[in-house]
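User: Hey, quick favor. My workstation is busy. Could you predict this chain's structure for me?
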Amino acid sequence: MHYDLPLERLQEYAPDLPEPADLDDFWARTLAPLRRDASYERVDNGLVGVETWDVVLSGYAGDPVRAWLHLPAAALRSGPLPGVVQYQGYNGGRGLPHEHVLWATAGYAHLVVDTRGQGSGWTTGATGDPAGSGPAQPGFLTRGLDDPDTLYYRRVYADAVAALEVLRSHELVDPARVAVAGGSQGGGISTSVAALVPSSVAAVLADVPFLCDFRRAASVAQAEPYLELVRYLAAHRDRVEQTFATLAYVDAAVLAPRATAPALFSVALMDVTCPPSTVFAAYHRYGGPTATKEIDVYEYNDHEGGGAYHQARQLAWLAQVL
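Assistant: No problem, here it is.
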């Protein structure tokens, strides 16, 4: 059912979200130590048109992050290629070598990146999270909420930036033509990465993004993972304002005005996981008033969004942009 704001109000929903005074310094300090270190081991993916490497890159604090690098077989004799860094939905991982090869089959260098500590939900991952945290709800959203420095998503976003720079530095990749992409959590990560390192991102594909407008999401979301936050605040009644102030450091809608790359968003108006209003918050704030951006609206869909229809739209849009 349509439980959020009607579409005419969503098209105007651009909240003035408070941001931490030290937001830019916080992220400059977080990202400064990152390296472009990566190792590559070729693997047999069972496919003919795509070659795959098992990648281990250095993420936050030098922690190892796993990814698959897929290249069109023809790329081994040509280049440079445009690239796509793909971030995963909540509790998904890079999966098996043959699972995520759409962008490589379309001619892109395609880096499929694990999310640390995740990958035991709808597909598998191979990256742990060595850092600990204080009391948290089961899941990932409330880990490290005591302090911005310990926030789980601080580490995730740093890993994501490191992965982007690894792909941009690959000898077969054109560093000026690398896009970031993902659905749900991956859409929120993509939006945030575009804001954190705008000069490194050529385009953004943010599909039904998570991690946006946390206070609004906690008020209206009908399903996990935002309900982790609701349960946490129900238990920690004295930490409501502190919690939202901390989450502002990783709120994709708060970060979004810093982005500059062209962007294609999508939203589903029956999405009970990522409320449509939170997606529009990130979209309207993205890149400021002069940004080149579009949003596709799927009126009768839940969190699956546009599915294969939207993939076709993304293929055509990114080919035009890059």
